[in-house]
Amino acid sequence: MTSFALHLLRHGAPVLPGRLMGHTDGEPTAEGIAACAAQAADLGAAHLVSSDLLRARAAAEAIGTPILDPRWRELDFGAWDGLAPDRVDPDALAGFWADPDANPPPGGERWSELVARVSAALGALAPAPTLAVTHGGAIRAALHLLCGFEQHQLWALDLPYGVLVSLRVWPGARPTAQIMGLYP
């Protein structure tokens, strides 16, 4: 099967940065939206998909007319959603970072649930150049699925607001990809 380009763009800076935003529908900054639009300017994507959360959706709408797909949402941080990390029990947070499947946030989502959602979103993509405006957790899940990175390796990746990760994807029963570029 023919490969295609998949560009994963993390939303721009939210008004309240540095929090465990998860499913909290935080507002993006105008600068964050502009930075995302600039990243996407010359990609030539045939399809534009986006998380339905405002911080991603606003950036996608500045780029074009996106198809909104909640499967591209960030990990649900449950009771921690919207909190700064220093407002969360440090031992519980450390347990989450060490093993997010065994130690999910209270009332939140396990890593494996995020991976399953993103897997379904990837499976729904047409094999054509695509831009997905999404979140750091969803990008990490996609890299896990497509490139084989282990979860603990993904925490080592700095994915700042507005980062663009470009992949060459080979679809199939078990799709694979190669990273073509990472553009902060």
TrEMBL record:
Annotated keywords: Hydrolase
Mind telling me which Pfam families this protein's record contains? His_Phos_1
Q: Tell me if Transmembrane helix is a UniProt keyword of this record.
A: no
The answer to whether keyword Hydrolase applies is yes
**Which InterPro entries would you find in this protein's record?**
His_Pase_superF_clade-1, His_PPase_superfam
Domain of life from the UniProt record: Bacteria
Q: Which segments cross the bilayer?
A: none
Its EC number(s): 3.1.3.73
Write down the Gene3D superfamilies for this protein, in alphabetical order: Phosphoglycerate mutase-like
User: How would you classify this enzyme at the top EC level?
Assistant: hydrolase
GO molecular function term, any single one? alpha-ribazole phosphatase activity
Q: What is this protein called?
A: Alpha-ribazole phosphatase
* The organism of origin for this protein: Sphingomonas leidyi
